[in-house]
Amino acid sequence: MKVHDILLEYGYALSGMAGAPRDGRPIIAFSKWEGAKIYFWEASPAHLAGPAWVERPGAEAGFVDRYFQGWIDLARLRPIDEIGLQRLLIAHIDEARSKGDPMTVLDDVADRQNANDR
User: Fold this and answer.
1) Pair 57, 43: CB distance under 8 Å
2) Which of 27, 36, 67, 80 is the right S-S partner for 63, CB 3.0 to 4.6 Å?
3) What pLDDT score does 51 carry?
């Protein structure tokens, strides 16, 4: 299974900003500059020229869709349990190996553990 598929099961996959709700409810939006933050759509902001994603009511700065890489619906999030975390780690390692990443740190740890078990 791929990392993305497991994250989808728990509601942690990014959706495109075109589908983000414009009704004022909060979302988690991701940008490469700010990371993940909670934003909501303000249709008539007092201090801005037009509708925008803002961090709080009355904000003096807002953001447009193209500022973000995507969003997650807070209502769909659920905690990732221990089994889910294990599945994510295994999927991440499998994907890294399939892409040819050396994974030297994990390989070194495994080699040392195998040597100690002998």
Assistant:
1) no
2) 67
3) 93
Report how far residue 113's alpha carbon sits from residue 97's, in angstroms, rounded to the nearest whole number: 20
Please, which pLDDT band fits residue 112 given cuts at 50, 70 and 90? low
Separation CA 8–CA 118 (nearest Å): 40
Which neighbouring-strand residues pair with 35? 31
How many other CB atoms sit within 10 Å of the CB of residue 40? 19
- Report CA-CA distances (Å) from 46 to 49, 50, 52, 59, 102: 8, 9, 11, 8, 52
Provide the greatest CA pair distance for the chain: 70
Encode pLDDT of 15-41 as tens digits: 999 999 999 899 999 998 888 899 999
